[in-house]
Amino acid sequence: MSYDPVPELGDMPEFGMMFKLDANYDRLTWYGLGPEETYADRKCGGKLGVYSNHVSDNLAKYLTPQECGGKCDVRWAKVTDVSGRGMMFIADSDMFVNVLPYTPHEMENASHTYELPPVHSTVVRLAKQQMGVGGDDSWGAKVLQPFHIDVSKPLEFKFSFKGV
Q: What contacts 134, CB < 8 A, 6 or more positions away?
């Protein structure tokens, strides 16, 4: 995918794509930073390695459902079912990966975890980049400039996928 600069465009939170798999594909294995979530401005606690978990484990236990479960500097990721069948994703360069049982829209529209809808799919988001989460203080500080996506230049994201 590619992006040509648009002068009127403000911040771009993420440059990538999202799609759904059947909810039975509920296991994630990745080679990247982990084992916990990492973001552009929250990578210091992550260690490079191969990690595995259930997709539901990526849903952080925050008081209010919100962005969570991101994986930075991912070289490859597999989303599989209990038998190990599924999809493998490989990027030309490091990518941001997020695999959850809910879409960002579903999470944004729930004030509490019990308001999330029943799980019907596994939501896979692959991105060249996601901006940082900000909040360097407890009063809602904005994302620092080095962790924004530079939308003044063309962007390109290439990845491949195959069945496993």
A: 41, 140, 141, 142, 143, 144, 147
